[in-house]
Structure formats: structure tokens, C-alpha cells
Request: fold
Amino acid sequence: MIEMTVSLALTGAIILISAFDRLRYFRKYWTLKRTLEDSFDVSDVDLSGRTEYGNCFSHKWVIENMTRTKHGRIGGWFQRQMMYSTLITVIWFGILIGSFGLVFGIFLISAYMLAGGALLIFFFGALIAVGPGGPKYSEELLLALAVLNQDEYQKGDYAFLRIALKSVTLWTVLSFIIGGTFLVSAPYGTLLFDTLGGAVLVFGDALLWGPMFILFDVWPPIGILYISLMTPFIFVIIPLTFYIIYRRMRYG
Reply:
């Protein structure tokens, strides 16, 4: 289908343009990095993120822009429920996530039937181009640091700069990889999408919906309990475990 090829090529181009746009600030970031390295002895600065450097502009910026986010009514209610009824909240949260997964799966299938998958590709490309919150906050911090006078920098700013620069760099590299992959795979768009969709269906049927329906036939509450516990286990606990292992292997 020609729309798949066009959507992959166009989305890949958009992702690459966003990555190049982000890349144009890197000279300013590296200049700032060299400035701090020339101004301070940064050999003993902890770059793991575990040491808190409070007497610097970056720490104040993080406090003002990231940690003072106020939760809405739903967020506050959810936090209270997690505090006082953790198990029940996790079960209900799993049920909601599982139900959302089913609805989202139906949406994916419907969108694929209506637009041949082009709409989904554009949606995914938009998410990649915009980027998650971490790199966006990191980029804003780097831009804020870049406009300071040299006498306003402190040694602790170097730790924040390196961590933020790493976050932005990784996301930029990932954007280049995904954008390039989209462009290269554009001529094979239909085959790629069919393969990916089949893999998602096999995964969901093997670990989520298939066992849930089998258990549901035995006794409905067991099926509901299975999907409510299995969903957060696969999509939350397992990734978090791998992240913790990665952090320990990298930083000790």
C-alpha cells in the first residue's frame, strides 16, 4: 500500500528534522561544558545523580520547575489510595490498564483498517519527535544554564549539566536511529507493519488475553485477577527491575 510507504518516509523525515533541530544547540552545550571544566576542578564531581549539589543554579531550577508540580484531584486521590490501600489499588489499576489495553488494541485494529496503519505511524512519529519529559526538562535546563554569566556558575552545575547532556544526547541518537529506520524501511512498509502487528497479537494472546479468557471460563474473578496482576507485572515491574539492575551495574 502506497500510504504505508509515504507515511513511513514522511514520519521518518519529521523525526530526523526534529533531531537535527535539537542537534543545533549541541555546540552551545559543549562550549558550556568546557567552560565549567576550565573554571572548576570537576574530577571529583559525582555524575551518578546520587549526590545532591544544593548550592547551585541548577538545583534551584530543578526545584522550581520539576519537583513542585502539583497533583490534580485524580492524582491526589490516587496517591492517597496507594498510601492506605496499596493492594486493592494495584488490583484496580491493573484492571483499568488491562481494559485500556483491550480498548487500545481495538483502536489500533480499527485505525489500521481505516487508514492502513498510516495514522498510527504518524502518531508514533509525533511522540518520538516531541520526546518524553526527561529529555525535554534536560534541554530546558541546558538552555537556562547557557544564558548565565560565568560568575553565576557553581561546581555543582557541572553534575547537572553532564546528566542533562547525556539525557538529551541519548534521545537525539535514538531519534536519528528511529527516523533513519523509518526512511530505510519505507519501501517495505506493509511487510514491516504486518510483522509488527502479528508479533503484538501473538504476545498479547500468549501472555495476556489468551490466559485471561481461559481462566475467565473457569471462574471470572480468576481471569480478572490474572489480567489485573499480569499487566502491571509485565509493563511496570519487569522494566523497573531491569532499570534497577542497570543502575546497579553502572553505578554500583
